[in-house]
From TrEMBL:
<dbReference type="GO" id="GO:0006412">
    <property type="term" value="P:translation"/>
</dbReference>
<dbReference type="InterPro" id="IPR036394">
    <property type="entry name" value="Ribosomal_uL22_sf"/>
</dbReference>
<dbReference type="InterPro" id="IPR001063">
    <property type="entry name" value="Ribosomal_uL22"/>
</dbReference>
<keyword id="KW-0150">Chloroplast</keyword>
<comment type="subunit">
    <text>Part of the 50S ribosomal subunit.</text>
</comment>
<keyword id="KW-0687">Ribonucleoprotein</keyword>
<dbReference type="Pfam" id="PF00237">
    <property type="entry name" value="Ribosomal_L22"/>
</dbReference>
<comment type="function">
    <text>This protein binds specifically to 23S rRNA.</text>
</comment>
<keyword id="KW-0699">rRNA-binding</keyword>
<keyword id="KW-0689">Ribosomal protein</keyword>
<protein>
    <recommendedName>
        <fullName>Large ribosomal subunit protein uL22c</fullName>
    </recommendedName>
</protein>
<comment type="function">
    <text>The globular domain of the protein is located near the polypeptide exit tunnel on the outside of the subunit, while an extended beta-hairpin is found that lines the wall of the exit tunnel in the center of the 70S ribosome.</text>
</comment>
<keyword id="KW-0934">Plastid</keyword>
<dbReference type="InterPro" id="IPR047867">
    <property type="entry name" value="Ribosomal_uL22_bac/org-type"/>
</dbReference>
<dbReference type="GO" id="GO:0003735">
    <property type="term" value="F:structural constituent of ribosome"/>
</dbReference>
<dbReference type="InterPro" id="IPR005727">
    <property type="entry name" value="Ribosomal_uL22_bac/chlpt-type"/>
</dbReference>
<dbReference type="GO" id="GO:0015934">
    <property type="term" value="C:large ribosomal subunit"/>
</dbReference>
Length: 177
């Protein structure tokens, strides 16, 4: 936990800053960004354990570097921040085009043809959801002490699975070539 100070009318107010997100960045991965996005769309919004299971069973070449990145982000979360791996959810995943590796392939009669290998960079952000539960518990406690009517977003039951709500709508990419 880090404490920061904010100057407010010649007095200082201390604000507690908590970081709940952990990043892992992989650069210059030798595959096209489109092929990596097809795998990334299947894991966005899922829990860490479910993501590892999905990536181990999918038969695509893009799964292995993404699996290593997710594992690295979880290791960063547990080592640097002390988070539990059961509370981690993939909150944000980005795939961007990176540089293109250009080579020459020798051909007949002393000629050469260019070969372009596309590369991509992948950013994975894991979020700890245990901090969100603590904030909701605090809000519930406030409303019970003050005797106010609870708003609907506090009284509703939580979803038990930690998946994104739109995860079944992104299967359209698998129909493409």
């Amino acid at each position: 936990m880090i404490y920061g100070s904010i100057r407010f009318r010649s007095t200082y107010m201390y604000v507690r800053i908590t970081y709940t997100e952990v990043y892992a960045l992989g650069q210059h991965i030798c595959m096209s960004a489109h092929k990596a996005r097809r795998v990334i769309d299947q894991i966005r919004g899922r829990s860490y354990e479910e993501t590892m299971m999905i990536l181990e069973l999918m038969p695509y070449r893009a799964c292995y570097p993404i699996l290593k990145l997710v594992y690295s982000a979880a290791a960063n979360a547990s080592h640097n921040m002390g988070f539990n791996e059961k509370n981690l959810v993939i909150s944000k995943v980005e795939v961007n085009k990176s540089t293109t590796v250009k080579k020459l392939k020798p051909r007949a009669r002393g000629r050469s043809y260019p070969i372009k290998r596309p590369t991509c960079s992948i950013t994975i952000v894991l979020k700890n959801i245990s901090f969100n539960e603590e904030e909701e518990e605090c809000k519930r406690y406030q409303y019970t002490i003050l005797g106010l009517n609870k708003p609907g977003w506090i009284t509703k039951e939580k979803y038990t699975d930690m998946t994104c709500y739109d995860m079944y709508n992104n299967g359209g990419l698998w129909d493409k070539k």
